[in-house]
Write a structure and sequence with these properties.
21 helices; four-stranded mixed β-sheet; Arc Repressor Mutant, subunit A; alpha+beta; 48% helix
Length: 476
């Protein structure tokens, strides 16, 4: 007869409390997102209030949406002129339905979002409920460019269908979305986006040639190497040039046609200044929410609880009071942590601030974490989407971290310093004899920096510098 054995198995497992999870989530938010979070807390929590005092001066911001497109070049900037209300506007201003005067913003036409535009087309199609839900989930997952950046397998659970959709159903739902207007929407990458727009090319031969270029020679298209393309495709250069020009008239960002893309701004969290020969770091007061606990309401609530000797009637208010205290504490802790990390970074990278990118030292998250007694994950959250304003420009805090690269002398240097050297080499190159990535790698080797050619290519692309063939053609 078999016997049953009972055994106690003890394991240690670290779990974050809801309070700590909330603090961690707030820490990794950008300043703009954090300010919005605090503003929402102010609106729903009676125990929070704004501190008295003059409003802080707004911090200088710079446009963070500096997109460049290797295939299509810089698009023409939108017309910046705006219609102004003239001095001779009739005294009787337009009015809304409620009787209130309409402002200029009220009279502007609301631009339809990409999702609404696609949903409206989907409604007009006779689809089973299950297929419609899957297509709607895909539409809601598209980014501002109109691309689907999420894997289809990850979208199954979001649909909430039972049984869960299989691969065939998801692929079919994606095809339905890709058949909607604007053409190219729902693509997973640039090549697929362009391929979806090929039916707009009426000439069958030109369409076939364009498909071959997109499928097999996208890199040559990006580098505008018509000679190499003509050789690979065994076509006349003039014919290939005409097809490439037609491809560049396709839209790599179909989602931009619908919905105004919000301009994103970078607001520095901390400011670095050199005072009496030493670098100092201070918080940017414009990004620190000026909130405090409303002492009058808090004391009144506590007095009522003591008099009634029961917290039951005030359970919701007690939660609000506790959350208000957490919010104030989280604000203090967040910016104290950001300041500590920024100060540690500036101390270790002071040569960068004095001499520029080529003086950047290798730095890892662990070094800052050990110095401040933090976990590496905390440093990672603090440096992501947090910015520092310096005399050299505005940088994300994670910009100052790079791995060590060995030199021939046995010392180390940072990848940022090598990028600075590459940029200086290209800026100093002869216009009629630009440097290839391989030649740059050889010149770096002569300086004792052993950098692979593919690494040079990656750094050049990060610097948004065109390849040697395109620079040579531009010089010619």
């Amino acid at each position: 007869m078999s016997s049953m054995d009972f055994r106690a198995d003890q394991r240690q497992q670290q779990a974050l409390s809801p309070k700590l999870q909330h603090a961690v989530r707030l820490l990794q938010l950008s300043s703009l997102d954090f300010a919005q979070e605090v503003s929402q807390a102010l609106g729903r929590n009676p125990f929070l209030e704004v501190e008295d005092g003059d409003d802080a001066e707004p911090a200088p911001a710079e446009d963070a949406d500096s997109r460049t497109d290797e295939l299509f070049g810089d698009s023409d900037s939108a017309d910046s002129d705006r219609e102004l209300w003239q001095a001779d506007t009739p005294a009787r201003a337009p009015r809304l339905d409620g009787g209130t005067e309409a402002s200029a913003l009220d009279l502007m036409a609301a631009q339809e979002s990409l999702a609404n535009h696609l949903h409206a087309q989907l409604v007009a199609k006779a689809l089973p409920a299950r297929d419609r839900v899957l297509a709607q989930v895909i539409i809601e997952s598209l980014d501002d460019d109109g691309y689907l950046r999420t894997a289809l397998g990850d979208l199954r659970a979001l649909a909430g269908l039972m049984p869960q959709a299989d691969e065939r159903e998801m692929a079919l739902a994606l095809q339905r979305v890709q058949a909607l207007e604007p053409a190219g929407v729902g693509a997973r990458d640039v090549a697929e986006c362009l391929r979806l727009q090929l039916p707009s090319i009426e000439c069958e031969d030109m369409r076939a040639l364009a498909e071959a270029i997109i499928d097999e020679h996208l890199a040559l298209l990006a580098s505008r190497d018509v000679t190499a393309l003509a050789k690979r495709l065994q076509r006349a250069p003039a014919e290939v040039e005409a097809v490439c020009d037609r491809i560049r008239h396709l839209d790599p960002h179909p989602g931009w046609r619908h919905g105004a893309s919000d301009t994103q701004y970078v607001v520095p969290d901390v400011i670095a200044r050199k005072v009496r020969g030493a670098w100092s770091v201070s918080l940017n007061p414009a990004v620190v929410p000026r909130i405090k606990l409303n002492k009058v309401y808090a004391d009144l609530f506590q007095r009522c609880r003591r008099e009634e000797k029961s917290a039951e009637p005030h359970g919701e208010l007690a939660d609000h009071l506790q959350q208000a205290r957490w919010t104030v504490r989280n604000v203090e802790q967040r910016f104290s942590t950001i300041l500590d990390v920024a100060q540690a970074i500036v101390r270790r990278q002071k040569h960068f601030f004095d001499f520029g990118p080529m003086a950047m030292k290798p730095l890892g998250l662990r070094e800052i974490a050990e110095e401040l007694g933090m976990h590496e994950s905390t440093v990672s959250r603090v440096t992501n989407n947090k910015f520092i304003a310096t005399p050299l420009g505005v940088f994300e805090l994670k910009h100052f971290f790079s791995r060590a690269m060995a030199t021939a002398s046995g010392s180390v240097c940072s990848g940022t310093a090598i990028r600075g050297l590459i940029q200086d080499m290209i800026e100093a190159e002869a216009a009629d004899a630009p440097l290839s990535d391989a030649e740059i790698a050889r010149q770096l080797a002569r300086q004792g920096l052993m950098v692979a050619r593919r690494t040079v290519t990656k750094y050049r692309q990060l610097l948004r510098i065109e390849p040697v063939e395109r620079r040579r053609r531009q010089a010619a």
